[in-house]
Amino acid sequence: MQTDHLIPEITTGQYREEEYDLVYKKPSTLVDVAMHYCPGCAHSLVHKLVMEVVEEMGIQEKTIGVAPVGCAVFAYDYMDIDMQEAAHGRACAVATGIKRLMPDKYVFTYQGDGDLAAIGIGETIHAINRGENILIVFVNNAVYGMTSGQMAPTTLPGMWSTTSPAGRDTAFYGEPIKVSELIAQLPGAYYVTRQAVNNANAVRRTKKALQNAFKYQELHKGTCMVEIVGNCPSNWKMTPLECSSFIDDHMEKVFPLGDIKVPK
Question: Which of 66, 72, 173, 174 has its CA 20 to 30 A from that of 150?
Answer without folding.
Answer: 66
